[in-house]
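Intended use. Records such as the Deoxyribodipyrimidine photo-lyase entry shown here are meant for training and evaluating sequence-to-structure methods. They are not intended to support clinical decisions.
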Amino acid sequence: MDKQAVTVFWFRRDLRLEDNVGLFHALQSPYPVIPLFIFDDAILDSLPKNDARVGFIHESLSKINAQLDELGSSLLIKKGTTAAVWQSLIQEYNIKEVFFNKDYEPYAIKRDLVICDLLQANNVVTNCDKDQVIFEEKEITKDDGLPYTVYTPYKNKWLEKYRLNAPVTEFDCSVYFSNFYKSIFDFPTLEQIGFTANPIKVKPHNLTQISNYQETRDFPALDTTSYLSPHLRFGTVSIRKLVNWAARKNDVFLSELIWREFFIQILYSFPKVIDHNFKSAYDGIQWRNNEDDFKRWCTGTTGYPMVDAGMRQLNETGYMHNRVRMVVASFLCKHLLIQWQWGEAYFAEKLLDYELAANVGNWQWAAGTGCDAAPYFRVFNPEIQLKKFDEKGIYIRKWIPEFDLGYGQPLVDHAMARDRAIATYKAGILK
C-alpha cells in the first residue's frame, strides 16, 4: 500500500506556532504537515548533561506539543546527526515537501546545504524562509552593495526600509492548523534525550516597563529589563511582533533589536569573526592570558564588586545585566589583558541567551577588535561604573553577601592596569 504523502516542517530556532513564516507556508501545502524537531548530536555532544538551555528547549517543545494535542496532532522528536535523521525519515515517510526557517550561523549554513542536497536527491521539494530577522544579509547594504560595518548608518538604512512598509506583516498560522498531520508521536523525557534538569531556568519575558527603557536600562538593581533575549534566541517569540510593538512604544528598545540584526549580518558576511579579530591590525597584541587571573574573573573574586557581582549572577542564574556585561568584558580584556575569545567561550557556556553573532560582536566591541568597536584606549573604570549605576550597592550586595564584612583587595590596580592596557594595545596594533 502506498504511504500517505506528507509535508514536514522542521523547527529549529523558531519554537512557536504563532507568527512563524515557514510554518505558515508549510500549512498551506496540499499534504498534511508533520511538525519535526531534531536534537542534533553535533551540538549536544559538546554540552554538559544538565545544560539549562536544552531544558528550556525541551520545555518549549512540550508547550508546542500540548497545543498540537488539542488539534489531534503532535511533535515528531528525533535525536542524532541531522543527516542520519533525515535519511531515516525519507525511508519511513513519503515526504513531498520540507519547510524550515533560515539560520545565519556558519554551522547551520553548512548543515542546511547538506540536508537540502539530500532531500533534493530524493525528489523532496525544499523551502527556506526568513523568520528570525526583519531584514537579512543582502537586504540592508551600502549603496555599492557591500555590507555595513558601522552600526549607525546600518540602523538608519534599516529604519528607512522598515518605515516604508511598517508595520511588517505578521503571519496567522492558526488559519491553517487543520492541516497538521493527525498522529500522536511519543514525546521523550529530558532524560531520554540524555540530559537532566537544571535548577537554572529561563524567566518569562516582560514588556510592561519598556516604556521607560531608556531611563532604567543601565541600572541593574532595578531589574527592569525585558528578559526577552533567550526567547529571541530560541524563537519562542516573534521578531515581527516585537519590532512592530517597539516601533510604537520605544525607539531605544527598537535600536537594541536592530543591533541584533547588525551583528547577525556581520557574522554572515565575515564568518572569520567567530574566532579572529574583525580588525586584523589588532592581531599583534601580546595578551597576558594568565590562567589564575582568568579563574578569578570566572568565579567573581577579582576584588572589583561590579565585576564580581556580574560574574556571580551569571554563574548562578545564566543571566547578566547588559551594563554589567560591558564592565566585566572590558575588565577581562583591558585590565587583565586576556584575549576576548576566552571570555566569549565562557559566556557561551553559561549564558541562557547565548547567541553566536551577538556574543562575538559584543566581545569584540569590548576588546576594541571588532567592527564599530569601542576604541582601544577606552577602559571602563569598574569603581566609577559602580558609583554611577549602583550607587547604593543594592545590586552588588545581592550577589556578594560578604561585601560589608570586609571585601578582598582588587586583583589589579586600576590606574596601573589602564596604562598597561593602552601601552600593550598601542605596541601591538599592526601598522
